[in-house]
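Lab notebook, bench 4. Still working through the backlog of constructs that have no structural model yet. Next entry is a single chain of 293 residues. Request: give me the structure tokens for it.
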Amino acid sequence: MYRRGQLAIKPMPFRADIIAFALVIPVFFGAATAAAQTGEEGSIELVDPKVLRVCADPRDLPFSNEAGEGFENKIAALLAHKLGKTLAYEYYPGATGFVRNTLNAHRCDVIMGMPQGDDIVQGTNPYYRTSYALISKQGAGLEPIESLEDSRLQGKRIGIIAGTPPATNLAVNGLLENVKSFPLVVDTRFDAPAAAMIADLEGGRIDAALLWGPIAGYFAKHSKIPLKVTPLVKETSGPRMIYRIGMGVRHSDQDWKRLLNKLIIENQAEIIAILASYGVPLLDENNALLAGQ
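Model written out:
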């Protein structure tokens, strides 16, 4: 189950809004969808060919918000500029019903961040690769730790988002006794578990925090104190920690997917620069951090 900003434990990386998949397409769009599926010349795949309409969460930094401050907002703005289109959003909370009520309801045409392998949507080529990460205070002696199997974590107070992959590895390695759990699914108007976890780390109430890499990097970058973010790329057991992230479109939108793939290739350097500016830990195919990180 993949929630906006967190990957929960499932056989494949799903967003939390994809607990139940129901394809809801108004009759109005039926002809256009059929044309797109058959690949007819002049078929219409987009809600409005003059507008890049993005499906997004209104309160989900560092990914997106209504003020356009997230890195997915910045990448969407880059693509809109390259396409010569105006940019518009369909905002919906990143929980149950997100895909059904946005992309599949033809209210928008692309979800900017989807894990590769999530078949609830049709994925583009990935535009970055990242992992879950361990965050600790610099100088606390935990900076060299690269795996939850490290014995130096025994007895440490560790923050975890409930139901996410690192929770399994904490259990396997006997680290649950001092864990502080934070909820996965919340109303983001009132709760911010990742921010609360980092506040506990800064305040000494926990010794380390486990977060999805883009969130970890973003909060470490904006922390009041120096924090070390270490991608968990050396786990030898348990669920996978590393994911490729692409964009999501409707299964019928073949031409649109090909165009997005072309844009990703042509603008990869600028996309990477945006991600790096938000502190996202970016991995190459050998699980090493990209140069300059």
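Notes after review: Helices lie at 30-38, 71-83, 98-101, 165-172, 193-202, 213-221, 254-266, 268-277. The domain at 2-127+245-277 is CATH 3.40.190.10 (D-Maltodextrin-Binding Protein; domain 2). Flag for follow-up if needed.
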